[in-house]
Each structure stands twice: as structure tokens, then as C-alpha cells.
Write a structure and sequence with these properties.
With about 400 residues, this protein is α+β, with helices and mostly antiparallel strands. Helix content is about 30%, strand content about 20%. The protein binds flavin-adenine dinucleotide.
């Protein structure tokens, strides 16, 4: 199979990269390991779009034009939702079911060829990719590649160095599940107090401390998020299957214990049940690419700009180095920093681009650029750059 642009991974960044490359005239193939697009925003049930709006906005004004706006508008039309101010920043509640359908529409309209249930397992510069699906493999020859895998898998497969924070500083994982049958208002404070009581009484495990709930906006539906340390099998390692397996099992075990406990004791929860497990637990940070440029947290805090900026990082540093909630750090001047094209270009390779949560940045900057609104913007830019460089007809 041949493509001008091959996009690895169909999360927020890969979706935008593929649509953008195809709209710029490139024959675009996207490979995605799951059976739907959206990545963490669907498979892991992450249900809020952050980073869509200007960081300093009195009103919700879009920070990046193009695909971020299109996705937001389609989402608002699908759910009837609108931007909500959370503390100092605006967010758009999103529904993973609607997101998967919007993603299908966008790639169909753009003419992207998508290969679901397909995993990139080998890559050679030039570019030749090997994709595995159910024991069969497929070769793809591509003019350019965009690594939107979230885990910089292309760097690992090429055997080149990547960046990774020390285990104790990596942003912690979380397990999100969908509940039905909850009635009445949700009070985070009250539910948190009940969980503390349950732990003290020895009815709930200590890990239940990381559990919190948010309504989806649909009658009776609530999302439960369990922040985890990731240290069930030792130091947290988001690329180690034993560690990932423990996160999945602990997530289900603790979520079930909390929901069973609330069903017995909490008014409005008598009919509550877990209706959806995620396809995978949520991982916020793993490998990052080393690019021609590296965006730093200091630059995000200073609202720095560069000559080759392609998007704005319009979210504060949201540090989650423990499972006890976020620490937010805002740019001093309220200005969003620019994300340079150099941080989307893999160092040492021609026609290899990167987007989303594994682009070239330091650990602190990743705490800002990983949000989905920003991933749409970096994906769109990477797709455009790849389309401009990736025609197989070019010498
Ligand atoms: C618990 C949690 C809560 C969060 N809360 C928010 C929030 O409220 N708002 C917000 O905006 N962001 C939030 N984030 C961050 C955000 O969801 C992610 O950083 C973002 O979705 C990353 O997008 P991405 O496209 O870079 O990567 P991903 O969404 O991880 O997508 C990568 C895709 O690549 C695929 N893939 C990987 N390797 C391969 C391969 N070898 N072959 C084929 N396919 C492959 C994966 O299956 C996946 O679909 C949260 C994250 C977590 C984990």
C-alpha cells in the first residue's frame, strides 16, 4: 500500500493530522490500534476538551482556528453543551460517544483511509511501515510520517533516544468509567467526605481517595475518575505491560467498590451501576520525541513566541505528579505561548513529524500541551507540514 502521508494513531492529534494532510491534497492513511478514533477522548472516556480557548479570556474565545473550532462546534451541536468556566479557564464538556462519531465524519469527509485494529510494529526511514492486524502484516510505503501515537512509538521502533521524565515525576494515570442511574445533584465535597468515612471504616481501599465524579449532562449519567499512583507493581512505567495491567485491574476493582458503597449509603445512588469500562486506562505522559526544537515549561509560563510558531499552548501547566489532584501554574502575563514547528519535526529525520502529547517538549510544557484542544492544533499543523513534504511523486 502507498500513501503520501501515514499517520500513526487516531487520537485527538492523529485525527487532526490526518484530516489536515488529506485536505492539503495528500493521499493519507491513518492506522489506529482501537476500533474508533479519539484516543484518550474516547477509549479512556476523558470527557472535557481543555485548551480550546484563550487562556486570558473573559469570554470563551478560540485560541487556535481550524480543526479545534470545527470539532468544538460539532461537539456543541451533538451534545447541546456550551463552554463552562472552571476556575480561570474555559472548557467544553465533551461526550466520548459523540466524539467517536464526529471523528468518523471528519475523516470520511476528508477522504482519509483509516485502518482500524492495526498497530504499527516496524518502521524504516524512507518510509516503510509494517502494520499488524490479527496476525497478518501489511507494508505501507509513505512519503511522510506523523507520529501521533501519544507514546512516541516511532522513536522506540526506530531505536532512537527519546525523552522521559523520571518515574516519580511522570504525570499520574487515571481510570475513568461511565455510570448510569444516578439521580439528584452531585456534590463533590459530600461524596469526597463519604469516601473518607468508608476508608476510615475499612470498607473502602485507600486508593478510593482518588475517586471523583462529574455528570455527563445526560440524565442519570455520570463519569467516575479514579486518579492512581501507577505504583501497584513498583515504580510507575506507562510502557510496561505489567504496570499497565495492574492499573486496569485496580481501576475496575476500586471503582466497583466505591459505586457499591454509594449504592448502599448515598441518596440518589440507589439505582446506580457502572455502564461502561474504558477500552484502556488513561495515561497522561510517557515518551516524548526529541525534535529540532524543544518547548519548555518556562516558555509556556513566559508566553514566549518563536518565528516558526504553528499553534498556541492555551492551557496552564497542569501538573499531576501525584494522585492527589492537579497543581496549576499560569503564564504570568496571561498570554499563550507559541508552539514552534521545530517541536513537531523529529530531529535527525527527513519527513517525520510528531503531534499531540508526545511532541518535543520538556516535562513541564507537556503538562500544558497534552490537552485535547492543543492536540487538535498541533495535529493540524503536523498534517499540513507532512502534506507539504510527503508526496511520493517528489524527487
Ligand atoms: C485521566 C486523564 C484525564 C485527562 N483530562 C483531560 C481533560 O479534562 N481535558 C483535556 O483536554 N485533556 C485531558 N487529558 C489529556 C488528553 O486526554 C490527552 O493528553 C490527549 O487526548 C492526547 O491525545 P493524543 O492524540 O496525543 O494521544 P492519544 O489520545 O493517546 O492517542 C494516541 C492514539 O494512538 C494509538 N496508537 C498508539 N500506538 C499505536 C500504534 N503502534 N499503532 C496504531 N495506533 C497506535 C492509540 O490507540 C491512540 O488512539 C487527560 C488525560 C488523562 C489520561
Amino acid at each position: 500500500m502507498k500513501a503520501d502521508v501515514l499517520v500513526i494513531g487516531g487520537g485527538s492529534a492523529g485525527l487532526a493530522a490526518a484530516v489536515s494532510a488529506a485536505r492539503h491534497g495528500a493521499r493519507t492513511v491513518m492506522v489506529e490500534r482501537h476500533g474508533m478514533l479519539g484516543g484518550m477522548g474516547t477509549a479512556s472516556l476523558v470527557h472535557t476538551f481543555c485548551g480550546l480557548y484563550r487562556i486570558d479570556g473573559e469570554r470563551p474565545e478560540f485560541a487556535n482556528e481550524g480543526i479545534p473550532v470545527e470539532v468544538a462546534e460539532r461537539m456543541a451541536a451533538a451534545t447541546g453543551g456550551s463552554p463552562v468556566k472552571m476556575g480561570r479557564v474555559w472548557v467544553l464538556p465533551q461526550h466520548p460517544v459523540a466524539f467517536a462519531a464526529i471523528a468518523d465524519e471528519l475523516i470520511r469527509e476528508a477522504g482519509v483511509e483509516r485502518l482500524f485494529h492495526s498497530e504499527l510494529v516496524a518502521l524504516e526511514p524512507g518510509w516503510r511501515a509494517r502494520i499488524a492486524c490479527r496476525g497478518e502484516t501489511l507494508e505501507i510505503e509513505a512519503g511522510a510520517v506523523v507520529d501521533a501515537s501519544g507514546d512516541a512509538v516511532a522513536a522506540a521502533l526506530l531505536g532512537v533516544p527519546d525523552e522521559r521524565a523520571p518515574a516519580e515525576r511522570l504525570q499520574r494515570p487515571a481510570y475513568v468509567c461511565g455510570l448510569q442511574g444516578v439521580t439528584g445533584e452531585l456534590s463533590g465535597l459530600e461524596l469526597g467526605g463519604r469516601i473518607v468515612e468508608g476508608i476510615r471504616a475499612g470498607v473502602l481501599p485507600k486508593a478510593a481517595m482518588g475517586m471523583h465524579f462529574r455528570t455527563s449532562g445526560r440524565p442519570g449519567e455520570v463519569f467516575g475518575t479514579l486518579d492512581l499512583s501507577g505504583e501497584e507493581t513498583g515504580a510507575y512505567d506507562p510502557t510496561d505491560p505489567a504496570c499497565l495491567s495492574a492499573i486496569e485491574s485496580t481501576g475496575r476493582e476500586v471503582a466497583r467498590a466505591v459505586v457499591d458503597y454509594f449504592r448502599e449509603r448515598q441518596p440518589g445512588w440507589e439505582q446506580a451501576y457502572i455502564a461502561h469500562w474504558p477500552a484502556r486506562a488513561g495515561v497522561r505522559e510517557s515518551r516524548r520525541w526529541i525534535g529540532e526544537a524543544t518547548l519548555t515549561g518556562d516558555e509556556v509560563l513566559a508566553g514566549a513566541t518563536h518565528d516558526d510558531d504553528v499553534a498556541f499552548a492555551s492551557w496552564p501547566l497542569e501538573l499531576r505528579e501525584t494522585n492527589r489532584g492537579p497543581k496549576l501554574r499560569y503564564p504570568e502575563n496571561g498570554r499563550a505561548a507559541g508552539i514552534p514547528a521545530g517541536s513537531l519535526r523529529a530531529k535527525g529525520f527527513e519527513r517525520l513529524f510528531v503531534a499531540g502529547r508526545c511532541l518535543s517538549c520538556d516535562h513541564e510544557a507537556q503538562a500544558s500541551i497534552r490537552v485535547m484542544g492543543t492536540c487538535f492544533a498541533t495535529g493540524e499543523a503536523a498534517g499540513r507540514l507532512a502534506a507539504g513534504s510527503g508526496s511520493l511523486q517528489e524527487p
